[in-house]
Amino acid sequence: MWLRCLKVKLLVDRLFEQRSLPKADFIQLLENRDEETSNYLFSLASAERDRVFGKEIFIRGLLEFTNYCKNDCLYCGIRRSNRLAERYRLSAPEIMEACQEGYDLGFRTFVLQGGEDPHYSAGYIAEIVREIKASFPEAALTLSLGEHPLASYALWHKSGADRYLLRHETRNASHYAFLHPKEMSLNNRINCLNNLKDIGYQVGCGFMVGSPGQTLDHLAEDLLFIKELKPHMVGIGPFIPHKDTPFGTHPAGSVELTLFLLGILRLMEPSLLLPATTALGTLDGFGREKGVLAGANVIMPILTPAKDRKKYLLYDNKICIGDAASSCRFCVQRRMEEIGYNINVSRGDHPEYRI
Predict the structure, then answer these.
(1) How many domains does the chain divide into?
(2) pLDDT-derived band of residue 322, with 50, 70 and 90 as boundaries?
(3) 21 assigned to some structural domain
(4) Distance between CA atoms of residues 62 and 71, nearest Å
(5) Cβ-contact 273, 344 below 8 angstroms
(6) C-beta of residue 61 within 8 angstroms of C-beta of residue 132
(7) What does the alpha-carbon distance between residue 190 and residue 147 come to, in Å, rounded to a whole number?
(8) Concatenated DSSP letters for 271-293?
């Protein structure tokens, strides 16, 4: 037992020194992790995060402005085939009102997230982006709207969007096909990420931990893909089933494995913007704090209007859907202070993009 633990710690040391590992070593590290190794990994990861960012946790105001989606991803609660979902769309004035509330609460990054909703044309999104940036010029704007043509991405960036989040979900083509309808392809998802980087966005990718059909081999492929892509942000969280999807009875992903992967990602790329996700907090009441202690440095409280929060359910039992935006904002601040970290209300750009 002690020899195995020593070998795994040596893998962690190699990761720290080399910022990556061969695929077989990543698999061995994930397969043989234990509590002692995890704590060792987290100590190194936290030290790296503190070296780059100090004791600062960035907050982003998450505005979920539509739960309509043209796609039919098998794991997602807002998939087009879910006839039980209560649909909604926010108008441009409603979006601006929510951003104003967020600004007054101290948010200097807004994240506009929604399904791939054809109601919002590329031009309409561009108008919203321009209005947000004109009204809050010192704030950063992140979009998370799924797959779109290069021209749309370019228009939104020219209009003022700073960042784009697009989870790749899995780097393995057969696994991707297992999770998605046949009209979607991994190649297109990867092309979108490359286009976003070429345009000049701060780009985020990511994946679910414990998604149906996922193996440690798949996770190793994800880590190597992230190393190759060199994103500025990576969003990972445990898979949580939604009862009205084909994977509604599949078990949730592991909080412990998610935390371990956060630690690995921090050692791989010390400057990453790495969220402690709502999904972590949903499966574990202390999940977001654990995420920070494992190396994360971003939290995204919800700004979605109270009347619509309960409708944006990608998975079941999501936390904070009954809370006011102000309650979420200051609850997060208190909880971070309790573990020795400060909320940073700046734009929170990746170091490469700091002015």
Answers:
(1) 1
(2) confident
(3) no
(4) 21
(5) no
(6) no
(7) 10
(8) T-B-B--HHHHHH-TTHHHHHHH
Q: What's the CATH code of the domain at 165?
A: 3.20.20.70
Instruction: Classify residue 252: in a domain, yes or no.
Output: yes
The range of the structural domain enclosing residue 299 comes to: 39-347
Indicate whether 26 belongs to any domain: no
Compute and round to an integer the Cα radius of gyration of the chain: 19
Residue 2 has pLDDT above 80, yes or no: no
Q: Measured between alpha carbons, how far is 212 from 179 in angstroms, rounded to an integer?
A: 7
Interhelix angle 325-338/92-104, nearest 10 degrees: 40
Q: How many whole angstroms separate alpha carbon 109 and alpha carbon 253?
A: 29
DSSP annotation of 15 reads H
pLDDT digits (tens, 9 = 90+) for 179-211: 999 999 999 999 999 999 999 999 999 999 999
3 pLDDT more than 80: no
Residue with tokens 């969280």: 237
**With bands split at pLDDT 50, 70 and 90, how would you rate the model's confidence at 324?**
confident
Length of the chain: 355
Which residue carries 């949580």 as its tokens?
A: 240
Nearest to 258 by CA among 227, 218, 299, 287: 287
In the sheet that 140-144 helps form, which strands lie side by side, from edge to edge? 61-66, 109-114, 140-144, 163-165, 202-209, 233-238
Residues whose CB is less than 8 angstroms from the CB of residue 13 and which lie 6 or more positions away in sequence, other chains included: none
Any domain includes 170: yes
Can you read off the two tokens belonging to residue 92?
Answer: 């441009």
